[in-house]
Design goal:
The protein is mostly helical. It is built from 13 helices and 3 strands, in the order H-H-H-H-H-H-H-E-E-E-H-H-H-H-H-H. It has a 3-stranded antiparallel sheet. Helix 1 packs antiparallel against helix 2 and helix 5 packs antiparallel against helix 6. The longest helix is centred in the first third of the chain and has 20 residues. The protein is elongated, with a radius of gyration of 24 Å.
Length: 331
């Protein structure tokens, strides 16, 4: 391996990386032991494939993973950083390759990990972009206003179009009410939602289930949506059916939810660059701003560590000041 010959072009991933026996065993462990999603597995394959292309661009499989040393691992991360990657992306790539090499060492396919002693680049933690409360109200009102206009039109609206508008009202009320990820909301079934209790159970990362709250507007919107769905599909209320349906009676894809949001952002006069995940950021920040306990918000968001939730406290300075003056002896 001649490190001086490495160039940025070699950061392209090897398309055959999944066929390497060591990588295939690692992917199998990810899927069975860690229940990794297809998206997570794809990310690992991309990272491992880039490192393989950097070290052994034309070598035949299986690759000599045990021959990679700390110097070449460091060169790889520096080359990746020079492509313009943010420190957070470089740190994530380091973490992925550390995980892969830990597996190789544990399985006896490498003596040491070349990434074990490397440190991630220093990075500041960016504050998430969010919607202020007035903007959330505008977004939530957009499909509701379109529904009112459709119902007030001289010609009776198509029942399916009424359902789609009711669904979007309920969908975005639920996203903001629960603070759940869009994939978690898209995967909700009727059985996981209790309007009587004002709650739903979502399945988050690592197949962990958690309880999320549904406020009054979300409960009312879901009830109206379900009633309209019953007029269109005979088994719309079956426990195993998705809560939110597309125009064909099937479940929603996350990309569809992103597309719906762009439509209603435009209708509300808001930036089309905002994503459904920004509703989750807004949910956390607004709760903390109104005095919610950090650990409660952590539980609602499904964060494993309070440190992950801590970032949202920086976005509610007026609440911090209020708490300080109320609690500090000389505040």
């Amino acid at each position: 391996m001649n490190r001086n010959q490495h160039t940025l072009e070699t950061l392209a991933t090897r398309p055959d990386i999944a066929d390497d026996p060591a990588v295939a065993r690692f992917v199998g462990a990810l899927r069975t032991l860690r229940r990794a999603s297809a998206h997570t597995v794809e990310g690992y394959l991309r990272d491992i494939g880039q490192f393989a292309a950097f070290c052994w661009p034309g070598a035949a499989l299986p690759l000599a993973w045990a021959r990679a040393d700390r110097a070449v691992a460091k060169d790889f991360l520096h080359a990746y950083a020079r492509t313009g990657a943010k420190p957070a992306s470089t740190a994530r790539k380091l973490s992925a390759l550390r995980t892969f090499y830990r597996f190789l060492v544990r399985e006896g396919m490498a003596a040491v990990s070349p990434f074990a002693t490397l440190r991630p680049p220093k990075r500041g933690r960016a504050l998430p972009i969010l919607l202020i409360e007035a903007e959330v109200t505008r977004l939530l009102n957009a499909p509701a206003e379109a529904l009112r206009e459709a119902l007030a039109a001289p010609t009776p609206p198509d029942p399916l179009e009424v359902y789609l508008l009711l669904r979007d009202v309920a969908l975005f009320e639920t996203l903001y009410s629960t603070g759940a990820r869009i994939a978690e909301v898209a995967a909700l079934t009727n059985a996981r939602v209790s309007l009587a209790e004002g709650a739903c159970r979502v399945v988050g990362k690592g197949d962990k289930e958690r309880l999320c709250m549904l406020g009054g507007p979300a409960v009312a919107a879901i009830a109206a949506m379900r009633a309209q769905a019953g007029k269109l599909w005979a088994n719309a209320d079956a426990p195993a059916r998705p809560l939110f349906l597309n125009r064909f009676g099937g479940g929603l894809a996350t990309r569809s939810i992103e597309r719906f949001m762009k439509r209603w952002l435009a209708a509300a006069g808001l930036s089309p660059d905002l994503s459904p995940h920004k509703i989750r950021h807004s949910f956390a920040t607004h709760l903390l701003g109104h005095g919610a306990d950090l650990r409660v918000v952590q539980e609602l968001l499904g964060h494993a560590s309070p440190a992950t939730t801590q970032i949202y406290t920086h976005l509610a300075p007026e609440r911090l000041a209020e708490t300080y003056h109320a609690a500090h002896p000389r505040g």
